[in-house]
Write a structure and sequence with these properties.
The protein has about 400 residues and is an alpha+beta fold. The protein has 8 helices and 22 strands. The chain has 2 domains: about 270 residues, no CATH class; about 100 residues, no CATH class.
């Protein structure tokens, strides 16, 4: 019987072939870059290239694509290219190169004290805010703040069912609550109060807790750090016109200052929107006003999690404490490939590659992540000046926004 000889490629042969293919891909990419052209002529063509599994032939992490938002041109960085195992295709994560140009924005606004289930007739009422889960004496020691005290007020106008009771002024954890006063609203979308009345310490009248739920002190004071219920998530995923996108995500929700704007998606290029896919996102939940764990949401546009930015997993309070939960597990290649010091691995500290500016200006902005600071109900992760990934900002603070999306 004749002997058959099979010359199988060796490991070094595979390595050489792969290098040759990548070299050819570089030639293709450099050709289109030198010509100032894209390898495809439309967003539909780009999506088709993703579905065919051919994105890496013509594009690489760090390449830029553009679309129009009204009269403004948005520049998107390719921050990650991944594989879709089920189809053999690719997916691409895009993120705006700089912060959106319109304004800094709240993650979520300060919340109401109480929402009425039935009409509240004119009269005297009292309440004590919830401090559940808080161990910090700055919040729980009545000699340091008023959040554990009981407060009373008297209205002269009925508050309709579905209305809200709010503090009339902004506050800090150590602010005396009495001077703040109380403002009542017919419904959460109202920004003009029914009336504003005085607030004093006391237990006269009806306890609001017998009529419904009194909100958590930290959410009233600084806003709510839960991505699934945030104003910024709702705005990013809305096509509604000016003043029409905002609606309450919970009983205590109040409008953000940008509630009068049109939704982010309202004037984006239609051909771009047509190829943006919904992403399944896992985001941590705080352990103070909530029970911890995580939410899963489906969003067209979203803020990155701390891990996406090569900042490591989201920690309970800061980068040296226990991990609260596991959010997205994918580190976007952009934040590793272009790392300032040329190293690999997690980098939660300063990295110039994370620095972003207001689009069209030389003004550097802090910008939002969607990961919460899990040790309280109000802190949200923020990328600070210099590109640190683990910082905290109050939810109601205004900060830059650099959204991301997925095409596959």
């Amino acid at each position: 019987m004749a002997t058959q000889i099979f010359n199988l490629p060796r490991h070094e042969d595979y390595t050489r072939i792969a290098a040759a293919i990548e070299s050819q891909n570089d030639i293709f990419r450099n050709h289109f870059k030198a010509a100032g052209e894209s390898a495809v002529r439309s967003w539909e063509g780009f999506r088709n290239l993703c579905r065919a599994g051919g994105v890496r032939t013509y594009y690489g992490v760090g390449d830029q694509l553009q679309c129009k938002k009204g009269d403004t041109t948005l520049t998107w960085d390719i921050v990650h290219i991944g594989d879709v195992a089920e189809t053999g295709g690719n997916y691409v994560i895009l993120q705006t190169h700089d912060c959106l140009p319109m304004d800094t924005m709240e993650f979520d606004s300060r919340e109401a004290i109480f929402r009425t289930k039935v009409e509240l007739p004119a009269g005297t009422y009292h309440f004590t805010t919830s401090t559940a889960g808080i161990t910090d004496p700055n919040w729980t020691d009545s000699s340091k703040s008023g959040w554990t005290k009981t407060w009373q007020f008297t209205t002269t106008k009925a508050v309709p069912a579905g209305g809200q009771i709010n503090f009339a002024q902004g506050m800090d954890w150590n602010t005396s609550l009495a001077p703040l006063g109380i403002a009542t609203y017919s419904k959460p979308t109202d920004t003009a109060a029914l009336e504003t009345v005085a607030l004093t310490e006391g237990t006269n009248g009806t306890d609001l807790a017998t009529l419904g739920t009194v909100n958590h002190a930290q959410r009233i004071c600084y806003g709510y750090n839960r991505w699934s219920q945030s104003g910024i998530r709702q705005w990013l995923n809305s096509k509604a016109g000016a003043g029409a996108w905002w609606s309450p995500r919970n009983d205590f929700d109040r409008p953000e200052h940008y509630a009068t704007w049109a939704g982010f998606m309202s004037d984006l290029d239609a051909d771009f929107l047509a190829v943006v896919a919904k992403s399944n996102l896992v985001t941590d939940i705080n352990k103070i006003s909530d029970a911890g764990g995580h939410d899963t949401t489906q969003d067209y546009f979203f803020l990155p999690a701390m891990v996406n930015l090569n900042g490591g997993n989201n920690f309970y309070s800061d980068p040296v404490s226990a991990v609260q939960d596991i959010e997205d597990t994918v580190v976007w290649d952009y934040y590793t490939k272009f790392r300032r010091d040329g190293k690999t691995g997690t980098n939660a500290e300063q990295d110039d590659n994370r620095r972003k500016y207001r689009q069209g200006s030389s003004t550097e902005w802090n910008w939002r992540e969607r990961s919460p600071g899990c040790g309280n109900a109000y802190d949200v992760r923020n990328v600070t000046d210099g590109g640190r990934a683990w910082w905290f900002y109050y939810a109601y603070y205004w900060s830059g926004v650099a959204p991301a999306c997925r095409i596959e």
